[in-house]
Request: fold
Amino acid sequence: MKHTDIKNIFANCADYIGKQTVVCGWVKTSRNSKNVAFVELNDGTCFKNLQVVIDKEKFDAKVENAFPVGTAVKAEGVIAESAGNVCEMSLVSYKILGESPLDYPLQKKRHSLEFLRTMPHLRVRTNTFLNVQRVRSVLAYATHLYFQQNGFAYINAPLITASDCEGAGEAFTVTTRAWNDTAKSEEEYYAEDFFGKRASLSVSGQLEGEVAAMALGKVYTFGPSFRAENSNTTRHVAEFWHVEPEVAFAELDDIIETVEDYVKFIVKYVLDNCPEEIAFFEKFYEAGLTAKLKNVVESDFVVLDYAEAIKLLQQSGAEFVFKPVWGEELQTEHERYITEQIYKKPVFVTNYPKDIKAFYMKQNADGKTVAATDLLVPGVGEIVGCSEREADYNKLADAMTKRGMNIDAYSYYLDLRKYGSVPHSGFGLGFDRMVMYVTGMSNIRDVILYPRASKEIR
Amino acid sequence: MKHTDIKNIFANCADYIGKQTVVCGWVKTSRNSKNVAFVELNDGTCFKNLQVVIDKEKFDAKVENAFPVGTAVKAEGVIAESAGNVCEMSLVSYKILGESPLDYPLQKKRHSLEFLRTMPHLRVRTNTFLNVQRVRSVLAYATHLYFQQNGFAYINAPLITASDCEGAGEAFTVTTRAWNDTAKSEEEYYAEDFFGKRASLSVSGQLEGEVAAMALGKVYTFGPSFRAENSNTTRHVAEFWHVEPEVAFAELDDIIETVEDYVKFIVKYVLDNCPEEIAFFEKFYEAGLTAKLKNVVESDFVVLDYAEAIKLLQQSGAEFVFKPVWGEELQTEHERYITEQIYKKPVFVTNYPKDIKAFYMKQNADGKTVAATDLLVPGVGEIVGCSEREADYNKLADAMTKRGMNIDAYSYYLDLRKYGSVPHSGFGLGFDRMVMYVTGMSNIRDVILYPRASKEIR
Reply:
């Protein structure tokens, strides 16, 4: 089916003018006047529709009703320049590839996002979801581009894991045992399972990322992670895509530079490559979106010590639901106040109290804090979690013991501190949330093709 | 820890000569002579080690024993040109970042791949696994590059699925139910589960790929797929990475062009960007590797009808374990004979008997075959499975009914044939097998960081 992508026609308009050309696409809208009909065709390759102009006298009477919304068409015609300086097609012949009967659920009108969530197989045909998926693809590509250009190796951390990970309560079990299989003990039950022991879906590829970074120097994962959390919010799903870089020979200051550089790069890449999509989201979903994104690209991000952040919040005079206190987590209200009210740009909060952070983070000399940082952005709060990793064998083993962890299950991880240990750091970015941030979509279910959450699957 | 990646020094040797420079890395080997010591440092960013030359008179006596294999070092020195026209460093000062005690398992000698499989957290530090992972990363990047340059959108098909897929026997169950939970029926058991019904890990993203292609036109997935197969072979794992493009407005001939173009692109990209790694694999793992890969890039792939393939095999006079018969699967011995003995280059075998292929493939006019093709390559056999998809609602529904499938569970998939159906085609490539093919590694466990198979997990 030789044909031309509509994207290419718009990108090289002058080359096509006057030429007979074949396109394929789906009807977005159509309208009739006395002698002429207009059909807007979209083939998914770009935001813009190609307008097809039909001189009705040249076709039989059928043509008038041949193009209901959703109809698939192969159209041949001559490309011309229309009034608005864009390409359009003067139709010579056409073939209906697939009809769109009257019960097609996406007739020409705006549908609520809630309604569209009930039909994931069709909603991707709407302008909103086409644009979300295109921006998502560009953002993913920008991620690969950034890391590859900067000498990182892409690695695939395992998704099925037997590791007795912290937060195992949040992990899904992966099994081939049937619902009515029984055994005398947990051990015997899983001994008969596919892997011979209990296996679960990975919540993070970080630990394997560290393994790889101790050889390849600079690595990144970009793959799915899974959390069996029952939180029914607009920001949580059970299956999400995760970017987790890990860098050898990098201390906290170094990785902060990388995070800032990476975030600016991908946001700028989308601004440069998806101007029409961003304008669409600005119009329909988030006023000020472009300015928000430009501010990210052009700002110098702030680096703010956690202790200082607590002080600023306490002195702010603002009324918070949760009082800001040293030693407690920053709540989203605090994070947003810092980044939206105080600085009006992205802020790294650094050196959190060690008791509210994970066992693997590097313990600072003060004995109270760890070399961790969260990147906060206006409109969202935390978007990246980051830390230098503890590189000292004894300090790491102590932290694990204090948390009651099973040291034996982590002997491989401790080995990294035994043989050629080096300062190293890494971060994690929830990719779906980054797509939300860049598009202005406010529910994570709307940036994922088939979102998965508690009791939500189809 | 400001320092320079060793890759950058080799890439811009002339710029560094005479300059004092800081590098970090791990000791690969070291040797002592009377006045001078040599240490080979690798930081993971490239194949080559940086040779560090130590004038022993300028350091205290400790220097002689400071660099056992595996030690992590920060080294400052002046870059000079060595005899072989490559950069080396004349050491000025150094700091040991992490020691490597004598029980380090990877002392300087060759280890068997079997032995290395017992320690996935350390084997990635060997030359073989460093090179495999670097080539894997480049091959992954080339995949994104190819599809993005050609107007495909990257999509993430869901990994957790409730769809009652063909081959569900091979799917892992994903659950939050405990090993000793019981219920009166399967339905009640899973009603209490996280998703409220039985969920499993996806074996393929194709069906969701088709959903997306019906809107975005050209899409590709690149993510994990899972098979709970008990086949303990050198080519099967339970968790693998899968490239699954799907193209609207493409018939079998069109997708064959795309497959050929894509495979040539990624193989050429690795030849161009990983010459040292490929030379390493040629030397240690597969004689003739470079010629094999160049042959792929430079050949016009053959397109051969399945019926003709059977005839050629029958007339070949070759002795096969399985007799080639029309209506039966091609065995690996047949596939390899066709591509290695008859054509000596990649071959598309097309139009297989419909009874040995999947329900979703387009039925040919002969009533006996489907518009499917497998790409066979010398040394492996099948590497890509591909087909035009059935776009006709009634034919598809018939094929599903004949196979005893639950039509209701696939109503979304049938909807794609009801509303604006178009000819469309797609293919699947097992990414890990492609890494094997390009590196010459003969066991799939050696191209994956943490391979997963029956009873194999750590």
